[in-house]
Design a protein that fits this description.
The protein is built from 9 helices and 14 strands. The protein is α/β, with parallel strands linked by helices. The protein has one domain: Metallo-beta-lactamase, Chain A, CATH 3.60.15.10. Bound molecules: zinc ion (ZN). The site of zinc ion (ZN) has 4 residues, from loops.
């Protein structure tokens, strides 16, 4: 697979299967969903970097747990989160809404609200020649987030929004769930050659101790049953089936 490595984005694997993304430019770092702080501080110190901003996609503790310690260490950090979550993401100092654009590390970043996993989940979209999407827990490779607070319709609409982005968008999600998701998909579509190939690719990466993310939207649309669902009814069947599968 050809990844566009136009930006320097590093993944730190923490807890069981979380990935904290560090977007680095010159000596500045933007951290996405720091579940914990220690590995982030260690990486920043070892590489003589400075923490500039924290992007929060939603309020779950395995996304915001490290924020307090990080802003104690670097006081001028921007903490960017949904304006709907001032209570559950109380450390935010830049509150954003759907459709708003910000300038981060000299690039335009658009806020895209993707409801379903929670009632206020947002994604961060870096447009331009090499688009990037930090999607949190809304989309995973081979899967999508559980619907905790939203409705099936909201999650389906969120996935439709993601599908409308440029096909070369590189997607960074917050969990390494790919293999389990692909095994579930193969259970439903045992003869699907694209999904079979994806399993081989994923197993190879994991055997080399590599992350299977980020992933390209274009390729994901071929193997992700949730993105392939033709309507809300099919999506809802898949989501309910997956909830019972694990
Ligand atoms: Zn979550």
């Amino acid at each position: 697979m050809e990844f566009n490595k136009a930006r320097n984005i590093i993944g730190l694997r923490v807890l069981n299967d979380n990935v904290i993304w560090l977007w680095i430019k010159d000596k500045s770092v933007v951290v996405v969903d720091p579940s914990v702080h220690e590995p982030v501080i260690r990486y920043i110190d070892e590489n003589n970097l400075h923490l500039k901003a924290i992007l929060q996609t939603h309020h779950h503790s395995d996304h915001i747990g490290g924020t307090k310690s990080l802003i104690e260490r670097w006081q001028d950090v921007e903490v960017i989160a949904s304006s709907k979550e001032k209570r559950r993401i109380p450390l935010q100092n830049i509150s954003v809404k759907d459709g708003q654009t910000l300038n981060i590390l000299g690039e335009e970043v658009k806020i895209i609200e993707v409801l379903g996993h929670t009632s206020s989940h947002i994604a961060f979209f870096l447009n331009g020649k090499n688009p990037v999407l930090f999607i949190g827990d809304t989309l995973f490779s081979g899967g999508c987030g559980r619907i905790f607070e939203g409705t099936y319709q909201q999650m389906y609409s969120s996935l439709e929004r993601i599908k409308s982005l440029p096909k070369n968008t590189l997607i960074y999600c917050a969990h390494e769930y790919t293999k389990a998701n692909i095994l579930w998909a193969l259970n439903l579509k045992p003869k699907d050659q694209d999904i079979k190939n994806k399993l081989l690719e994923v197993e190879k990466k994991l055997s080399l101790n590599e992350l299977t993310i980020p992933f390209l939207l274009d390729e994901e649309m071929k193997i992700n049953l949730f993105l392939r669902a033709k309507d809300l009814e099919e999506f809802s069947f898949l989501r309910a089936n997956k909830d019972l599968w694990v």
